[in-house]
Design goal:
The chain is mostly helical and 361 residues long. The protein has eleven helices and six strands. Helices cover 42% and strands 5% of the residues. A hairpin with a 6-residue loop joins strand 3 and strand 4. The protein is globular.
Length: 361
Amino acid sequence: EYPDSDLIAAAVDDLNSVSEFTGPTNGGQVTSETVFRGLDQGNLQGPYLSQFLWQTITRGAIELTQKIRTGEPGVDYLTDYDEWLANQRGAMPAHEQRFDAEKRFIRNGRDLASYVQQDIPFQAYENAALLLLSMGALDPSLPHDADDTTDGLLNFGPFDVLDAVITVFNCALSAAWYHKWVVNKRLRPEEFGGRVHDHRTGCASYPIHDDLLTSSVFDRVEEEFGASLLPQAYPEGCPLHPSYPAGHAVIAGACITVLKAYFDESFVFENPVQATTDGTALEPYVDEDLTVGSELRKLASNMAIGRNWAGIHYRSDELSGLRIGEKVAISILEERKEISLQGQQFEGFTLTTFDGERIRI
């Protein structure tokens, strides 16, 4: 419902007034259709959410319907300065998290923030692999013989795919931690919000860009909460490690790169769906064809931007994180190509990068 929202319209106007915006635009302008989407073309097609977060997943004898426990609408945390300061000093959260009484399919940013709050970081990509295997979407260029009872399962087959997703996840997380602790040490948005509040109230002075200080968002936040802090979706606020790059984004970049290497990006979903506006059901999506490649790239952005929705990351944490993860995955796929061949003829994995380049590994 974002295109009909006055709040979203105000956010769009605000972003169009800043000196630089690194997210997607339409004709150079941020719109209600692009404002919260990822950069690449796949993110701008179809529903905001990837099919991999709505479709039913078959896990052996288990059918997984992807309804989730979501945060209660309109409830924000760490908006009081004393509570925020106590949180910065290590106090336990002052409030228990409030959840919606009904489980729902993801249908807005708050729901997406709930999904990535306590997820097993590789679960979305393992689910995506299982869905793609059930669809028969393995890349036909791989030297995979489904009739071979050994290679059909192992080399370039289902078990190989699932193992690759888990393998690259752990390596990606190590890369993220190196950048966080050794290289960047970037302040979290929650903490930066405290700097903004102190600057605006005259308690301190910080080098904060005028684009932010002159934003109309503060009138709205201060009217509702009485402070200039950044409202949080989680009562505990952000994790206790630096912001850049986003760990979820690095993992997403790595796992999605692996999935693009193993599956046919041009494969079209037969029965795409979208959530109803209240998230209680799914309905058919019929406006345009949705391909595996575009929906995988969208899944990567959904997972990374979900943490932005929570108030604990910046867009640059997401964008750079995806590309760091991609580099990790490419290095692992180079090694995997040699290990898996066992004398088979194989020219290499092919995939489309997050920057739209078609490459062969």
